[in-house]
## 1
Amino acid sequence: MENELKLENTIVKSDSLLKEKLWVVIPVVLLLGLAVTLIYNHHAEFSWDGFVQGFDENLLVFFLIGVFAQLVDGALGMGYGATSTSFLLAYGVSPVLSSTAVHVSEMFTT
């Protein structure tokens, strides 16, 4: 009886360790696959100058709005979309781009 309990306990622990590792392995594999696919299909279009030019004032504004909206969402448990959309619209971003930016960021933060 005691040996059976130890055996079942070991099986349960190994299953939980496998499930914990899958939470790390699956996203890493998916991100690496995405990176390899993008590099393979568009390697000629990538350049260091284009990468550096992408870091302009707008990226900083989007980042700060996202951080603030995530703080509101973390404190209240809701409101990321409403907060970030309101601030992006107030900044002068069109409603279509604002909605797209919010929905894409919610895929990774929510």
## 2
Amino acid sequence: MTQEVHPISIPSNLGEHTRTGFNTKYLAGGLLLILFVGFLVFQVYEATTTTGAYYLTVSELNARTPQIYGERVRVNGNVVIGSEDWNAREVTLRFAIVDESQQTLPIVFYGPRPDNFQRAASAIVEGELLPDGTFQAETLLLKCPSRYEEDPEEVYVESIR
């Protein structure tokens, strides 16, 4: 038996690669990546502008009174002894803080009264100054002295309104 051998012809354009158009999966992936990075940049911007607060003393806040209404600020002061007014029915805590220059600031906080409020030496309140002169606190950070430790105990509470 004789076997016939046919020569195999190899196409001449086999090594050439021709692009026929855009690859849509790479285009869609790139767009999704750009959207995700844009979303992250937007979230970082929003987080820094909405949670950023000026840090002022009571006297600095009183000096900026007309211009600072409605702006989010953070104020530090010592809790005035005997200024606490707790209304459990309305879940409202009213007290005052004082700074080194003996200027006082009335504070209203809508939220749970911290257990150790009587022992609080100083308070850092964050919120906004109202036109009637009271400071509506959204967050309250109390620093209380501890009998057994050198560092003061800190309690952080957020407003419910």
